[in-house]
Amino acid sequence: MKTSIKTLLAALALSTTVAFAGPGSEAKKPVSFATGIYASKNGALNVSIDKKAPAYASLSIVDEKGEVLVRESLSRKQRSASYRFDMNNLPDGTYTVAIVSKGEKQTVSFSLNSKKEITRRTLTID
After folding, report:
1. Cβ atoms within 10 Å of 35's Cβ, excluding its own
2. Structural contact between residues 34 and 57, judged by C-beta atoms closer than 8 angstroms
3. Of the four, 22, 55, 83, 97, which is 20 to 30 A from 49 by CA?
4. Mean pLDDT across the chain, nearest whole number?
């Protein structure tokens, strides 16, 4: 598997940043929605969103260059959604998941790192 799951999980756990969109705000948990973001063993990123009130919401995944790779929207009537994104074909690097609703923003950064295989040689004397 291309993605190091331990590295991905550690990056998700250590780099969760929750903040209100706006200058000078202290970091707080969003009150208009709840999220669950985790990596699966097969290299997929799972994102669940549960809105507490009718409001539009958006989800995006952005690479370290700022290029938007994925953009999903939830309508006002849609209260919850679950997404699965295959990360196996993405190059190594740092990515950010951003969820925005009612002026609140939650971001989670994670890194993808390929496992390096070690080539072992044996010397046999006949």
Report:
1. 19
2. no
3. 22
4. 79
